[in-house]
Amino acid sequence: MGIAACDLSQHVIRPTLLYLDRHSAPAEALLLGAAACQSALGSALDAATGHGLYRISQQQHLTLWDQHLARDPELASRVRGLASQHAFLDAPHLELTVNLRYATAIAWLLVESEELELPAADDLLAMGRIWCKVFQPQGRQHDFLDAWQRCIAPASQAA
Question: What are the pLDDT digits (tens) for 63-118?
């Protein structure tokens, strides 16, 4: 069983995006949908394909730090501030699994590094295109829609 979609949004995704000064409804929806697709909102946090809510690979993680964050020391410092003090130095990729806010920041910056225009928060097929490009190149847009219906829609219909 994963994290409730409303709790993930309210306590992890939104505060992280606000901390990074990157909050928007589409950004929040995209990350929520990506977490639904990648790990069923945290039901399975580690796989051979990647770590944590967003199943970020070690290579994606390293590339983001080397090619994106290294060019923006202020942003790198903010992201590093989300990581555990000593654990990050010993096992930086483990932070993607055990630190939800750090993983969310990295996931968002992976999206941002692609320089894609975000669609409206309710355009799930367009969100699915971005999810495929950033997180799951072998995925299909309908996989995003299916995960949304399975993991997120039931909670929003109950509210």
Answer: 999 999 999 999 999 999 998 877 776 767 888 999 999 999 999 999 999 999 99
3-state SS string for 36-62: HHHHCCCCCCEECCEECCCCECHHHHH
Cβ-count burial 108-126 (b if 16+ within 10 Å, e if not)? bbbbbeeeeebbebeebeb
Q: Which of 112, 106, 107, 120 has the alpha carbon at shortest distance from 35? A: 107
**Which pLDDT does position 1 carry in this prediction?**
65
The number of folded domains in the chain is: 1
Which residue range is the domain that position 133 belongs to?
5-158
For 70, residues 6+ apart whose C-beta sits below 8 A from its C-beta are 76
Dihedral angle, C-alpha 62, 64, 66, 68, nearest 10 °? -170
pLDDT band at 16; cut points 50, 70, 90: very high
CB 30 within 8 A of CB 132: no
* Predicted TM-score of the model (pTM): 0.93
